[in-house]
Amino acid sequence: MAGRAESVKSHPFFRGVDWDDVYYRKYRGPIIPQLRHKADAQCFDDYPDEKAGRDPYTHELQKKWDHHFKDF
């Protein structure tokens, strides 16, 4: 079986992509954001910090959700 990166690269969505050209940065991105400074993060959404403690992952939650991730 091919590596996980190979399975993504071989997906039909990426048909025609020359991955060596991507690696060597020969493609120009379709959207080039204007940066105000080196640490400019204006194009990223802000999210509130997570609360310090998380609720426990109970057996009931496991029964409800784990089947969604069986092949993950």
Q: Compute the number of strand runs.
A: 0
Please work out how many helical segments DSSP would assign. 3
Q: How much is the average pLDDT?
A: 90
The share of residues in extended strands comes to under 5%
The N- to C-terminal Cα distance equals 16 Å
Unreliable spans? none
**Shape from CA axes?**
flat
Secondary-structure element string? HHH
Structure, described:
25% of the residues lie in helices and 0% in strands. It contains three helices and no strands. The longest helix is centred in the C-terminal third of the chain and has 7 residues, at 59-65.
What characteristics describe this protein?
72 residues; 3 helices; 0% strand; flat
Q: Any chance you could write out the topology, listing elements then pairs?
A:
Layout: H1 4-9, H2 19-23, H3 59-65
Report a brief summary of the structure.
The protein is built from three helices and no strands. By secondary structure, the protein is mostly helical.
